[in-house]
Amino acid sequence: MPELPEVEVTRRGIASVLQGLRIEAVVLGKPLRWPLGIEPQALAGRTVAEVQRRGKYLLLVLDAGMLLVHLGMSGSLRWRPGPPPPGPHDHFDLVTAQGTLRLHDPRRFGAVVYVQGLQDPRARKLLGRLGAEPLSEGFLFEDWYAALRQSRQAIKPLLLSGRVVVGAGNIYACEALFRAGIRPTTPAARIGPVRARRLYDALRAVLGEAVDCGGTTLRNFSGAGGDAGHFQEYAQVYGREGQPCRTCGSPVRMLRQGQRSSYYCPHCQRA
DNA sequence: CAGTGGGCCTGAGTGC
DNA sequence: TGCACTCAGGCCCACT
After folding, report:
1. Hey, what CATH class is A4-127 in?
2. Are A54 and A15 in contact (CB under 8 A)?
């Protein structure tokens, strides 16, 4: 599940190759989550200026307009020389003379959306309510702590919502809470400054380390070069229900919050 | 307004 | 072996 690290790994893999390239054609497969929002042929002739990231969105900034790319649950982008024939799960090709950027997404929760700029209503709708970038210098502990005090939600769904801080999906939210020693069910407002600081540090550490690992490959994520990530080898609780905690040996527990599984160690995460 | 739960989609895994 | 069923989950949206 592409979370912030997987998207950032993808961005790093395509940014330098795409920069300055001219789009020859855009080829669509089956419908993705949202319509592209422009006729594909209207993109031919434009060039890619740079590739940015905001939360779990990739921003392909063109000389005019930009493409917002979301990998959803099962999406991955790959850069390949030449125009290989599309498979049944390839739903977006950005074709250049030097190679093709391809979105492969079996579940089609992903999307590519054209907007004129960040002020485009569609961009504002998708990006406008996103919280802070956890790895940026603009993510301040004071703001984080203040936001926690203001929320009546349990900390885990608050992390997943992306409203305070973006980028953590189920895996990294579970892992960050484990490192901070905080239960997924703890109301955000009941987390004091010391524990809030621990979670703030843990979130940044987990996401940063995952980027360095090339992301997490559980089923089929791979970077733009096709290489798998290996952060999953370092997971302490995620997906480990019933197995001994690597710190204290207690069996890892799983509970449901909303429709999501939360994994935690009842001993290391006391409250 | 904040918070909760439904639904999108398909491959992998499970049980009979 | 094969079929029916459940699960995985990011995120928008309808609803409370």
Report:
1. alpha beta
2. no
Residues A213/A214/A216/A217 CA torsion (nearest 10 deg): -130
CB-contacts to strand C (7 A): A 1-3, 33, 55-57, 70, 72-74, 107, 109, 125-126, 160, 162, 169-171, 259-261
pLDDT by 10s per residue, chain A, length 271: 788 999 999 999 999 999 999 999 999 999 999 999 999 999 999 999 999 999 999 999 999 999 999 999 899 999 998 778 888 899 999 999 999 999 999 999 999 999 999 999 999 999 998 999 999 999 999 999 999 999 999 999 999 999 999 999 999 999 999 999 999 999 999 999 999 999 999 999 999 999 988 887 765 566 777 777 778 778 899 989 999 999 999 999 999 998 889 999 999 999 9
Give A90 CA → C2 C1' in Å.
29
SS3 A61: strand
The answer to whether residue A56 is catalytic is yes
* Whole-number distance in Å between A19 CA and C14 C1': 41
Intrachain domains A4-127 and A141-264 with the same fold = no
